[in-house]
Amino acid sequence: MKDFRLFMFIYLCTFISCGNAQNKQNAEYNWDAKMKDMGLMDVCFWEPSIQSYLVYTTGDNFTGKPLYNSRLTKAWLHPRAVKMLIRAQDILRKERPDLFILIYDAARPIEVQRTMAEWAEKTNNEYYVADPAVGGGLHNYGMAVDVTLVDEKGEWLPMGTPFDFFGPEAHTDKEDDLLKRRRLTPSEYKNRKLLRRIMEEAGFTSIASEWWHFNACSREEAKEKYLLIDR
After folding, report:
1. For 82-138, what is each residue's pLDDT tens digit?
2. How far apart (Å, rounded) are the C-alpha atoms in residues 149 and 78?
3. Are 199 and 147 within 8 A, CB to CB?
């Protein structure tokens, strides 16, 4: 019995040590270096007038906790998507030199997508989170970006809902009705239309459920041509 207790003590110490080492490895994994090695580009380096506030480095998101570690600090995208986003910024600046694009989220590791999916399943919000079991979404290939518009003071233009709002008020296919029912103000409606127009003119496509989300290609094309962001 004495030998058994000693064995269990050693086993538990080893298990805890290995678990702590794994957690530390996860916390310190250098996603910035990984994405650079994959050929993704730091958007704000190539176009400094585009701003970023990476929401998932903070707890200011739908899960209520930071999802990116301290070594994912930049808005990375595939070069094709970077070129398109710079084009959108150029279109905006010619029409409204007082406004700028701000990035909420860009390339996203698939392991973060798994965490999001677990949260969504627990809260019955699966509709809003791409399933990592079937390859995730275009963020996981560096081919989607979440954006809004800001003014010269860095103030976010009103869009009717915050980022990561799960509900019909965030849907792009309900905006006319929302305006009629005064769930969107004329200013919010106009801002959404402006954002979507410049992004679509640059080659992005929008989706029905999130006014902030834009795709640079189809999911099928991404799976065929681009690398999944994984370790």
Report:
1. 999 999 999 999 999 999 999 999 999 999 999 999 999 988 888 899 999 998 999
2. 21
3. yes
Burial class, 12, CB count within 10 angstroms (exposed 0-12 / middle 13-18 / buried 19+) = exposed
- Alpha-carbon span 25 to 19, nearest angstrom: 10
**CA torsion sign, 187 to 192 to 195 to 197?**
negative
What are the DSSP E strand ranges found in 116-171? Answer: 144-151
Neighbour count for residue 183 (Cβ, 10 Å): 16
Q: How many CA atoms lie within 13 A of 230 on its CB side?
A: 10
**Is 206:196 a contact under the CB 8 Å cutoff?**
yes
Q: What is the dihedral of CA 145, 146, 149, 150, to 10 degrees?
A: -100
**Secondary structure of 111-126 in HEC code, one letter for each residue:** HHHHHHHHHHHHCCCH
Q: ∠ at Cα 118 (117, 124), nearest 5°?
A: 80
| Cα dihedral sign, 86-70-65-126 | positive
**In whole angstroms, what is the distance from residue 84 CA to residue 198 CA?**
10
Question: Is the overall model pTM greater than 0.85, yes or no?
Answer: yes
Which residue blocks in 1-154 are alpha helix, DSSP H?
A: 2-28, 31-37, 43-46, 79-95, 110-122
Buried-state track 62-82, b at ≥16 Cβ within 10 A, e below 16:
beeeebbbeebebbbbbebbb
Question: Could you report the per-residue pLDDT of 2-24, keeping only the tens digit for each?
Answer: 554 444 444 444 444 444 544 55
